Amino acid sequence: MLNFFSPTLALLFQEAERSRLGEMIYQTRTAAANPDLSKFLVIGALLFIIGVAGVLTRRNIIVIFMSIELILNAANLNFIAFSRYLSQTGSPNALAGQIFAVFVIVVAAAEAAIGLGIVIALYRNKETIWVDEIDLLKW
Amino acid sequence: MQKYIWLVPLLPLIGAAINGLLGRKLRFSERLIGGIAVGSVALAFLISLTAVYSYGNAGWPKPYLTSQDGFSFSWIPGGAVSINQGGEARQQVDVQKQVEERLAAMTPEERSQTQSMLVATTETPRYSLLNIEWSYQLDPLSSIFMLIVTGVGLCIFIFATGYMHGETGFYRFFAYMGLFMFAMLVLVMGSNFLMMFVGWEGVGLCSYLLIGYYFDRQEAANASRKAFITNRVGDFGFALAIFGVIATFGSAQYTEVFEQAKSFPIEMLGHWGILSWIALGLFIGACGKSAQLPLHVWLPDAMAGPTPVSALIHAATMVTAGLYMVTRTNVIFQHSQTMLLVVALVGAATAIFAATIGITQNDIKKVLAYSTVSQLGFMFMACGVGAFAIGIFHVMTHAFFKALMFLGAGSVIHGMHHEQDMRRMGGLKKYMPYTYWTFMAGWLAICGIIPFSGFWSKDEILWKSAETTHIPLGWLVWLIGTIAATCTAFYMTRLMAMTFWGKERFLEGAGGEADEAHASAYDKGLAAHDAVQPSAGDRPRHEPGEHVGPVHEDAAHHAATHGHGDGHHGAHIPHESPPSMWVPLAVLALLAVIGGFVGIGPAFRTITGSEHPGGYLNIVTWLNPIIWNPATREFNTAEGAHEAAPAEGAHAEATAAAEGAHGAAAIYGDTGFNLAHSVENSTHSELATEWIFIVISLVVAGIGILLGMLFYVWRPELPNIWAQRLRPLYNASYNKYWVDEFYGLTVTRRTMDAARGVYRFDSKVVDGIVNGLAWLSRQVSRIVGGVDKYFVDGLVNTVAAFIARLMSPLFRAAQTGFTQNYALVMVLGLMVAVAAFYGKDIAIAVASAVRNITGTVF
Fold first, then answer.
1. Given an 8 Å threshold on Cβ–Cβ distance, is A12 in contact with B845?
2. Is the ipTM of this complex over 0.85?
3. Are residues B729 and B849 in the same domain?
4. Same domain, yes or no: B260 and B409
């Protein structure tokens, strides 16, 4: 998981270590080639954070579901961004990200189906969709 | 044949082992058991006979040890022992030798100069290598005992096969008897003191077992214990004496001990040297085993055993072990004048004491038992006055006639259906002719009628007492012995009269006192062994209508003899015993008649032509080599050199002793009034003096017999009249001088008291201490338990509870059960992990991003 982040962080870090002259050369070279990967990443990160916050704070289970979808989509966004970035650098594995994103969407659909089934079953038993009223895990 | 004598003790042991170990398991028949027992003893007898024969031809007079032919093994390898006793005496011997040797080698001038060298050197401890071996010794003394033990034993074994017929413990009886034979033969054939002790204890054990043969009877059980315990007293003395011997001579082997002892100085009257102490210990042992005063009490009670046991153990062999021992150690005894006097006086006192008791007893075996004690007293008298060979001679003749009479009594008891009370007998002559005539021979022998065997030995004893120069008071010993001989003749005549002559009393009850005592003893199941409660037979505890005894099982024999319609106890017609019983009687009767001819005394030298006729077959000559001669300070030589006349007249010391028996006078000092010498001084003839004493002893025997006839045959009313007139004396004799009561009061009760005291001490104090300690530990453990339970556990529980109460809300609070909380924790954890690993990178990245954003683009 942590290794998954490291290319991103290394990229950020790499940019930060540039000398002013080198930085300028780098920026002029990558500005044409790189359509600003960091902005996608920031957007993805924001989406992820919003999703996590939603999962942690919302009491309505449906909303939590929706927040999970946000998280998944944040991940998808990253996949797509890196895919695009890698295709521009000529990597032979550039399409992997897009395929991954499709997988995620499929899994998310299945997950939504199962999850909503659970929600319905839960509602039938408990007559509620508020998670703070469901504390069966308590000791 | 001599080298096979180790088989002699072994054979009876093998027989006993077969009978004892297999007899019951394999259900041996009586015939087989008897065959094994009698066969083993007969074989032992044959071997002894041939061995003694060849010893007489070849070895005599030197002792033959089986170790010469390789039969011996190191029994107790003792190692070095320090000889720390008898140093003073030994030193005297050494110094004396030194003086003689040196003085002989010196010129007169030197002699005076070197006087100082002859001063005694300081005593240095001596050491010896003690090795006690197991080997047998064949010498004049042990050969006689071997023949008596196996020969008389064989007769008694044969008798016992008839007498014990039908007994339940038949195999047991013969196993014990065989074991006894083994122990007795080890006793007399052993070559050292330790082997004698082993045999000594072995015969004691067998005596115990056989007295208690009818162990279901209280009387027999008590008697066996009494015998064993009384013997322990004697054995203690014997054991101390053996220690003394080893500490003094550094060896237990007879030959070595006596070789050293013979040169020790003689300890005069009143001087208690080491040899006197050893002799005292030995004599205490002899007193116990041979039933001398004051340890005689067990022998009369021992009559509770079967009659063959009484004959073999308590008349012929075991009780003479004391005599064997005293004679064997005559070197030591002759070195102590004090102990010789003690032996003689104890013997004389026992002789008269037991003889007077014998007069009033009514149990036939009791009379014979007291007679045995009395005769043993005679034998000790002989030893005490220095006539050891004569003592052994009397042992031999006594073994013949007393075994005969005991077996005769057994035959009578058998024929009378286990009736022992003479008051219920009478007139048996008609019914039991074989028993009667053989008993007659024994009677004449013990009374001392010439030429029956008892005469030769008893007369010699009295003569030796009168003429002894070993001890003072010989005349007193003679006087007591003569009176005892009169009593002997009297009570034996009484026994004959009451049993075989006169009115037939067995069909009527004895009546009066006897029947009452009989009945009360019978009812109470008490010991019926003493005269107050006359015996009700060997086994009194049977139902009145029940037939007991060997004969009753033999139905055919029974029916042929007489009917048993009445079934009343004691009211049977007596019958003669089977041949297995009267044939041994006949053999013994023959020996009792002619047995005395091996020891015809010097008084008959005008007839026989020799002082001790028969060459070395004369018992005195035969025994001479083991008798130490105080005059020459050596053992007698083979050439007829008995104490009267040493052969080597040229020798200086021998000449001093050449005046016959008077020679000892110089050695033992002035012994005061001497009866024989006084008579001799008036008759001026030794021969005449001897004959005077022979006539006296015959006359007193005749007086005793005539008195007995008068009282019990011619005037049967006299006994009661005289019993009334001499009531105190009669009671004293009848109650055996209350010795048993005295011992009961002073010893038995006190011992019991002490035992109870010790028990009380044990149960109260020792157990109290133990129990108290246990109680204390229980209390301590209770306290410790309380501390553990309430304090330690409490502390632990308190701390645990405190911690649990304190901490549990915190942990419990974390478990909300809400999924979101857990998810939050996961996220927080993820963030912490990321921060921990990448915190610095993130911070830099954020900073550079901010700088990029603010500084460059946008």
1. yes
2. no
3. no
4. yes
Q: Does B852 touch chain A (CB under 8 A)?
A: yes
Q: pLDDT digit string (tens) for B194-250? A: 999 999 999 999 999 999 898 888 888 989 999 999 999 899 999 999 999 988 888
- Interval B562-586: pLDDT, tens: 433 333 444 567 788 888 888 888 9
pLDDT tens digits along B499-550: 888 787 777 654 444 444 454 454 444 433 333 333 344 444 444 444 444 4
Q: At what angle do helices B321-328 and B193-211 cross, to 10 degrees?
A: 170
Kindly report the average pLDDT of chain B as a whole number.
81
CB contact under 8 Å between B856 and A57, yes or no, is no
Is residue B461 within 8 A of residue B381, CB to CB? The reply is yes
Q: Are residues B688 and B826 in the same domain?
A: no
- DSSP line for A90-139: T-TTTTHHHHHHHHHHHHHHHHHHHHHHHHHHHHHHHS--BGGG--TT--
The neighbouring-strand residues paired with B76 are B132
A52 with B827: Cβ contact below 8 A: yes
For domain A36-133, give the CATH number: 1.10.287.3510
Amino acid occupying residue B759: Y
Residue B623 in tokens? 């025994």
CB B254 within 8 A of CB B193: yes
The angle subtended at Cα A38 by Cα A36 and Cα A41, nearest 5°, is: 125
Please answer whether residues B657 and B664 qualify as being in contact, where contact means their C-beta atoms are separated by less than 8 angstroms. yes
Residues of chain A contacting B, Cβ within 8 Å: 2, 5, 9, 12-13, 15-16, 27, 38, 52, 55-57, 64, 131-132, 134-139
* DSSP-derived secondary structure letter, B212: G
Distance from CA of A15 to the nearest CA of B (A): 8
Give the separation between CA B514 and CA B496, rounded to whole angstroms: 19
Higher pLDDT, B330 or B852: B330
Token reading at A27: 């920026």
